[in-house]
Amino acid sequence: MENGVSSSSTAAKSQKPPPTPSFRSPVPSAGLDEGLSAGPAGPGELLKQECDSLGPPLASSTTAKPSPSSSGPGALPWPGPPGRAGRPPQAALPPVVILSKAAYSLLGARRGGKLPAAAALLPHPDVAWASPLRPPPPAHAGPEEQSLYYRRWTATRPHHADHGNPPDPASGARACHPRRLLLSGPPQVGKTGSYLQFLRLLFRMLIRLLEVDVYDEAEINTDRSESSEVSQSEGEPWPDIESVSKMPFDVSVHDPKYRSMSLVYTEKLAAVKQEAIKEPKAEEPRKRETMSMMLTKYAAYNTFHHCEQCHQYMDFTSASQMSDATLHAFTFSSSMLGEEVQLYFIIPKSKESHFVFSKQGKHLESMRLPLVSDKQNLNVVKSPIFTPSSGRHEHGLLNLFHAMEGISHLHLLVVKEYEMPLYRKYWPNHIMLVLPGMFNNAGVGAARFLIKELSYHNLELERNRLEELGVKRECVWPFIVVMDDSCVLWNIHSVQEQTSQPMETGVSSKNVSLKSVLQHMEATPKIVHYAILGIQKWSSRLTSRSLKVPFSRCHVHDFILLNIDLTQNVQYDFNRYFCEDVDFNLRTNSSGLLICRFNNFSLMKKHVQVGGQRDFIIKPKIMVSESMAPILPLQYVCAPDSEHTLLAAPAQFLLEKFLQHASYKLFPKAIRNFRSPVLAIDCYLNIGPEVAVCYISSRPHSSNVNCEAVCFGGLLLYLCDSFVGADLLKKFKFLKGATLCVICQDRSSLRQTIVRLELEDEWQFRLRDEFQTANSSDDKPLYFLTGRHV
């Protein structure tokens, strides 16, 4: 006997085991309901039980011989050896714990729904009850309710982790750090090893969050660039308007993302050997080169970034704050679309100061613009920032708080109507410009077109408003920033004589903020005379040679400062899905406007694997079977009125994809023949890397490349307007057998264009050479006709 409790599992050896033993309590009042439990024993063993000193003494006894009457509330069958006495084996009982009556009275369940006395025990030795007058614990509480109860009614002792973290006097709750973790478990189960492994994984995860994969590709077509004959000083911070205007525009595209696109014809390109250009097959997707970089304090972030500094910039503190944003319709007339366009602004309360409302405060009148004459302020960026985004509500780099160094700025997300709820959920404190529903399936060209149209209309409204206040119309700031949602870091470069870094010999690079880049560009002398300002793409292959020319007159992409006043008559093609910026740059240059690139700044673009220019999934409009062969690009077009499989994709998308892969069929005379490019009037379209495209503008007084001695291998007329006439086309020479492709909105316009341009005089057409995109008539297919020069 020890501590008043004893038990015996064997009986006297002299007693023979009964064939069917049973366990009967010697005292009826001390049955199983009061704490006496039976456990399995060997056959023939007798169980002995004694009560502790706190309860009434129970006589130690042994079981008697079995009898049929030994059945009642205090008796349980005892399993014997299988197969004995001809009885079938019985299932074994679970393990049995033998408790004293005092222990059972403390730990056992109470009758009548009362809690056991153990509920009064403290949950941890390092805490004490905060007050003796406390409510009982919840009867059927789960782990969360129990945790809240003990946090409310216990006080910490000196050794507890929360001893220096007193509770809130009002609510009684402690301010728990959101990243505090509790690891609990029984002794000697490997908690330390698990904790260290968790820290190892957490460290890797945090390091990965501080890394970003950026594109690291050298510029292309650098050997075909138009050399600048104007000398420039290397140390000049801003371009000189006179020097830039004397530079020839470099029509060659140098952005490496356009490696597989058609080359833009130049006189230098005509001298390139045909075998010198080797491009991968279109069917083989080329993986772009990337490099892992550490994020800096000036980076742009996505929704997975959280810090104390930009908490208010990103999140909303209460569920009601999301409803504080107001929806405002904004209607303007577009001459290009031929109708009124209604856009919607979603404006949070904290951003309403950037807008002008009617006196009643309900109608949105305009978006505030600063003045050109405003002095440069270190805490102000003049230009509104527009970021079109699609499919990247989580992964788009739309958090510009750190990139703008925390200053107040006007940033507008441009989203499609069907994606607005998702973007509003993840970016509740951002101003959103919602495109009309008719552009839900449109490409990036539509977003850029509407951004520019809206901005010019707003510029006129602000000029009218400020003119009433005595401000001259030309003094209103005419620039906007249009940037992609994958711009992550910005750098400044300078040339140095010696460096210890062999990879970047002669180049010193420093990460800078978006704010400093914009403020530097906005401080350009005579800035209102520039149409577009931009910066170059970052590459680890940047050399001092590429930085010797501080400014270039060439294409700019992805991050531009756009003068919406000068470019009023130059529009983005709202139909386009691909190369819309190349097309816009060529239109701008042919209009005689200046495009300038700052070579001492560079932009890093993150490799974002979702959203953006994601291709449409090309599938049949009516699915016959789920397992179908992939649809090839040559199947994106068909003969009109044929029984071809109709596809569920926009007509413009199908057309552009088809042209990228059909150059061998459409323009065989121009394949790898850069002396005889394809003549494209008023448009640039990618018709494959094997073909060069000569861009010509039909507008009066436009600036075009000299092509008097060029004999073209093809002619591309894409949705041509009234500026394109028969007299213009007769100025150009074509090879015998050169091919023509005329693209129109419908069959009627196609025939009218053939007649108006007198194409049948020099081109031969066949009825079977008429095609359409593989759309149904409800989806408004595009039609095109091919012909051969005679």
UniProtKB/TrEMBL annotation:
Residues covered by the GREB1-like C-terminal domain: 629-790
Domain GREB1-like circularly permuted SF2 helicase: 88-217
Annotated region (Disordered), positions in chain: 1-89, 221-241
Domain TET-Associated Glycosyltransferase: 384-611
Signal peptide: none
Compositionally biased tracts (Polar residues): 1-13
Ranges of compositional bias, category Low complexity: 56-75
Name of the protein in question: GREB1-like protein
